[in-house]
Amino acid sequence: MSPAPPTEGLSIDLRVADPRWDVLGDLDAFAAHVLGLASARMQQGGEIAILLTDDAEMHVLNRQWRDKDKPTDVLSFPSDQPEIPGQPQYLGDIAIGYDTALKDAETMGRSLEAHASHLMVHGFLHLMGYDHIEPEDAKVMEPLETEILAGLGWPDPYATGPYAPDASAPGQES
């Protein structure tokens, strides 16, 4: 990993529900590093809750909140709480499923660290209101992801593989 950017103004509540995520090392430092750079790039601080879990829980969450009866790699839940002057803004929740993330990373020939970084950045941008469902929205969101990931030392996730413009993503549905 490259040196961690300052995370001033960013608070991360990390919950690890699946111990397999420990393969990434110090998960608090990992999340602070990735989201610190995303926060700095977007000039947006606040509070974020992150759940690192498995496909079983992602399946439940995806069914409950999106009416999709299958697991997925990342889900984002932007906060609808009003901003309170003088208090940190609660930005929302991000959930990432280990099984699908690992399978997708292997399919793309990427390390789990690179792919998990992408999923965190992707989820963070959703919390900021970005989307990728419509092609015009994707033209805004995807270059931001690519730029942030480049700052972390990772290649463009959209250049090749399942996320490339001509392919469909295997698990990406946040």
List the helices and strands and how they pair.
Layout: E1 10-16, H1 27-42, E2 46-53, H2 55-66, E3 74-78, E4 90-97, H3 98-108, H4 112-127, H5 135-151
Parallel strand pairs: 1-2, 2-4
Antiparallel strand pairs: 3-4
List keywords for this structure.
16% strand, 4 strands, Collagenase (Catalytic Domain), single chain, alpha/beta, four-stranded mixed beta sheet, 174 residues
Summarize the structure.
The chain has 174 residues and is α/β, with parallel strands linked by helices. Helix content is 41%, strand content 16%. It is globular and about 45 Å long.
The CATH topology label is: Collagenase (Catalytic Domain)
Q: How many DSSP E strands? A: 4
Q: If strands are numbered along the chain, what order do they take across the biggest sheet?
A: 1-2-4-3
Low-confidence stretches: 1-7, 167-174
Binned, the helix content reads: 40-55%
State the separation between the terminal residues, measured CA to CA. Answer: 25 Å
Structural class comes to alpha/beta
Order of SSEs: EHEHEEHHH
Descriptive overview:
41% of the residues lie in helices and 16% in strands. It is α/β, with parallel strands linked by helices. The protein has one domain: Collagenase (Catalytic Domain) (3-Layer(aba) Sandwich). The protein has a four-stranded mixed sheet with strand order 1-2-4-3, sandwiched between helices. α1 (27-42) links the parallel β1 (10-16) and β2 (46-53). The radius of gyration is 15 Å and the shape is globular. The two termini are 25 Å apart. Residues 1-7 and 167-174 have low confidence and may be disordered.
